[in-house]
Design goal:
With 542 residues, this protein is of the alpha/beta class. 28% of the residues lie in helices and 26% in strands. β21 and β22 form a beta hairpin. α1 packs across α3 (74-85), α2 (41-57) packs across α7 (158-164) and α10 packs across α11. The structure holds adenosine monophosphate (AMP).
Length: 542
Amino acid sequence: MRSTMMDTPLSIATLVRHAERVHGDAIVTTATETGSRKATFRECSKRASKLAHALRGLGVTSDQRVGTFMWNNQEHFEAYMAVPAMGAVLHTLNIRLPPAEVVFIANAAEDLVVLVDASLLPLFASILPGCTTVEHVIVVGKGDTTALAATGKTIHDYDALVAAASDAPFDYPVVDERDACAIAFTSGTTGSPKGVAYSHRSAMLHSMQLCLGDATGVGSRDRVLAVVPMFHVCAWGLPWACMLVGADLVLPDRFLQPDGIARIITSEKPTFAGAVPTIWTGLLQFVDKNPIDLKSFRMVLVGGSACPPSLMKAFEERHGMHIVHAWGMTETSPLGSVAVARDGLDPEEAWKLRISQGRLSPFVEAKLVGPDGKEIAWDGATSGELLVRGPWVTASYYPENDLEKFSDGWLRTGDVGTLTKDGYLTLTDRAKDVIKSGGEWISSVALENHLMGHETLLEACVVGVPDDKWGERPLACVVAKPGKDVSFAELRAFLADKIAKWQLPERWAIIASVPKTSVGKFDKKVLRADYAAGKLDVTTVD
Ligand code: AMP
């Protein structure tokens, strides 16, 4: 029997209309040099309609790609509304990638227009000459555009373009919900960056699951601080989720240093935030010295890389701020699991679940497979590679697929870990980072999590290095807290009652900071290369 339900598409145009009519009074706040500026969803939607008219005038007539090279701010939010709603594809360029990589990505996506923040003009000037498909650049804010104009592309001013555009509500087309609304490229730790094209359907379903009670529970009473960049996995879908439920959105623009984040928390009193662990590590140091009130937060979502349990505890115990850990990837839109503990557990059991990567989200199906390709039981102990599938998981890459990343309709995540019988995921490593010592796996993540709980350490990063006897052994690279002396012998003793003896690292090095990728994750390949090149001052302790 066919259903009798209407087949209206899940589309961003429908979401924009909802945000304007139903949640028109919700507010977008953007941090500025001296304070903040504000606009309602209604105002943003009206400007988005004008932006759509302007883009149409520049030749965006169907599913052309419109790039953004921007911080998290109101104009970026307007582009999140206008570009997909008019049937084009929003392409968020990662401003932290090396210029040559941005050029590669802009050309791969065939961006026709790029919106760029004035504060990023000097950087963008080194990128634009290589962008072969870009014809128009729209500059948000005031800055020197001489270098851009010299490329022969047409340069526009965002405010002037929007002001001159028609006031008539843009007639957003009815799209096929399976068409792309946005495209993001993976950080590309190996090979060329690969594009993941989200559909209207996947983005809307993902936004809805993001707001579920056991995910973020974000609703109209929330003020959502999106620190996670709008150029990385669409800021975890938070802008669209806010439009869905009418939550206020707080955007830090370029003020991402701990003092900038502290300033906007103090003035806007957000109830919810999303950011990678690195941001919170920096903020913790800052607020320990310059206490601010963090009690406005009912929850802070942390993911993108493993959140050290010591960080969660420190915020909770010293500042009353509750961190919830989550896992995801560009390919999964990103949210795949959230670490909310089941009810009725004793505190220790609950804590174990909270520091895991979380419980699988509905519709995200998962399995673990061993090196022989055989499925592994969900016993909470045996680890294997994680494979997932679901409506907001990519089925291929753009423009070229990578067949090795898929197996029988499942995405091979490249993450290695365990699943409990009720679907809590614990990651032990990336497949390429696992340390195999004498045939047994040592979890670098577990070592890092323990080490980062030591009072003298700010960060710790563990990588596998070649060893004549065991094949590979862990090398622990540690960053001292300012003013603290680090003793490797003491660190080894600290680990001794937490992990098996054979897993204790004997190679140690102090480093100034852990090298990070463009989105703030530990860049282990850099440390491995530094070790191979003899650049690390390694001490052996056993
Ligand atoms: P990206 O697509 O750049 O966001 O990277 C996705 C990868 O980040 C995942 O495949 C994981 O390896 C890692 N990741 C994301 N969240 C977590 C987490 N909570 N704990 C550990 N690793 C994570």
